[in-house]
Write a structure and sequence with these properties.
This protein is of the alpha/beta class. It has 4 domains: 2-31; 41-93, no CATH class; 102-333, Aminopeptidase, CATH 3.40.630; 337-378. 37% of the residues lie in helices and 24% in strands. β14 (221-226), α5 and β15 form a beta-alpha-beta unit. α5 packs across α6 (285-307) and α8 crosses α9 (365-378).
Amino acid sequence: MKNKLFVIMNVVMLCVCGFGFVFDSAGAKTAYAQSNERNYFVVFDVDNKNNEIFVRGDSVEDGDQYISGDNKLYEIVSVDGDNMVGYAKFIEDVQMPIYEVSKKTPGEVVFAASQKQVGLYHTHNDESYIPTDGYDSTYGPGGIHDVGAKLKSDLEGLGISCYYSTALHLPHNSGAYTRSHTTASSLLNAHKLDGLFDIHRDSTPAKEYITTVDGKEMSKVRMVVGNGNPNSAENLEFAKSIKAYADKVYPNLIKDIYIGRGNYNQQLTPRSMLFEMGCENIKKDLPLESCGPLSKTIDVVLYGSSGASSNSLNDVSLTSATGKESVITGLADGNSTASLNILWVLLGSIGFYFLVLGIVCIFSKTARYKTKRFFSELFARNS
């Protein structure tokens, strides 16, 4: 009897202890648990295993790529999921877009054009900042919503109409992107957006994101691009343009670019981006501070020197090193080098096809006959 009573008491105690987890899934805030167990991936150089390349709170996979802060391209070649370790090989130095600008010197600025519209939303609404919010996530709008609201405010201060959806896509699991797809599509269908941004925060040690820009302490920003969608080339071009401009005008703001297998809803528009605004271990004030220079960077990259706000252009000199005035063409104007590259690839493929066809026809009488017949039928008129 005593043994049975002891077993029953232990079961009751386990149920009481487990109640917190049940309550959390029903909507309670998740308190940060101090633990020595690492909850992020560390990726090392496969040729020098003592050289740490980067860390990431989300998973990494074989074949994913990464552009570092100093514009070096790596590709992940192996992953040890149990120990949350990956190895990557160096591929090449990345040629980034060129902005012939520098930090502001006294001079005239260009005033903004009109009709500028972007959209914001959160796939992972629960994400929060432990030092400020007291928890890393919550079953509801987390601290990341404060960052979204600040970015909206800063963008609107630059004359950009910002449509911000606070729709919830909980829980934070593999189905979140499927649920947020509806929100992203609704924003695009309701408005003629020049850009669409999914606002997140990462999960890494604090030192990975704390930085100083123009003498102010703030958070770095990581961009994530999905290579599993037809817009991946243009999404990556957009990310490179943002980084290239920020590296010139707001050094240390943009941390890096992660290129993963997912689509991150970026198949919906070629100017879609996922921004990681700091990590859970920093004060929320830091990503809030980052919203200012990030919004100005977005303004200039999208709308160029003729369309960006005077507030954005106030931080930059449009005089190049040669003394000539620089003209920045905004990506929202439809000028995309990625699109031009695809066009040249297409034209090159067509040219190559006709070259091969011509060579075959020179040496083959049958080929000449079939080719002649094909074109005569193609352009024949009905009598």
